[in-house]
Amino acid sequence: MPPPRGVLNTLEAPGDYDVTSTVHSDTYPAIDPTKLDFSGKAVIITGGSRGIGRAIVLAYAKAGASFIAAGARSGTAELASEVEKAAKEANRPPPKYLPLSVDMSSRESVEKAAAEFEKEFGRCDIIVNNAGIFGGFQLIQDYDPDTWTNIFDVNVRGPFLITRALLPLMLKTGIAYVVNVSSAGALLTNRTLSAYQISKTAATRLSEFINEEYSEKGILSFSVHPGNVITDMATTIGVDKSPEFKHIFVDTPELCGNTLAFLTSERETGLEGGLSMSHGTCLNSLQKVTQLSRRTSSELQ
């Protein structure tokens, strides 16, 4: 959860303290994935080998998804035993698990992964676009243009490519979801973070356009701020040791993972009619989802 109101928080985003009366830093009973039923469903999670992505993969395993694919540059094959263990501990049949080696900045790599997913599973109920890169702290005049562009290739073009490739399959499947893991940075303007924050704004807008073009056909999309989590990416840039940030990054990966399973479950039909998956706006997984699900889209816009 955010630090107490009034404490220095350079990453404070709109709604951190005001959208709901309750916020969380860890998972809680209302979003327990073992209470959900994703049997027969096929899910693909990019950036699924570690951190938040790993937590999302395991949440769907606990929720009983029958088919789970995790895509990343490396490390997805090693996750197979954890997926099986998570399912068994939740008293669910182990899913058919597909590790995918994919470079989200490469059209050829993404389309190959999508084709393999379709061949193995034959349906697509949920895409979670979690893969992303940060790129470091640079003033605009100091940014290498190729580095700046590469951040967009991974954070924006990648989600576009995998969604585009799997849309025909999703349209055949029926009700389906596209989730873009965005960031509070989509709503902020912090010096030296132009590439990352603009790319997350664009990814959030992508969700809005998916809704605009496909919601009437059963495909719903939304973006989430996953919370302030000490991931490998955060550790690489020293967030865990920074006096400015370490009191802010206190959220668990499981908070986001379990939230996404909850939000994409058909049991929460109120989200479809009320929030309409927030019409692509950026939900905050710190917020109490059961409160959000009762709010109308006009209240959250």
UniProtKB/TrEMBL annotation:
Q: Which residues cross the membrane?
A: none
Entry's Gene Ontology molecular function annotations: oxidoreductase activity, acting on the CH-OH group of donors, NAD or NADP as acceptor
**Record's protein name:** 2,4-dienoyl-CoA reductase, putative
Checking SUPFAM superfamilies in the record gives: NAD(P)-binding Rossmann-fold domains
Against Pfam families, the record matches this protein to:
adh_short (PF00106)
Keyword Oxidoreductase listed? The answer is yes
InterPro entries from the xrefs?
Answer: NAD(P)-bd_dom_sf, SDR_fam
**Which family does the similarity line name?**
Belongs to the short-chain dehydrogenases/reductases (SDR) family.
Give the source's domain of life in one word.
Eukaryota
Q: Which organism is it from?
A: Talaromyces stipitatus (strain ATCC 10500 / CBS 375.48 / QM 6759 / NRRL 1006)
Q: Which UniProt keywords apply?
A: NADP, Oxidoreductase
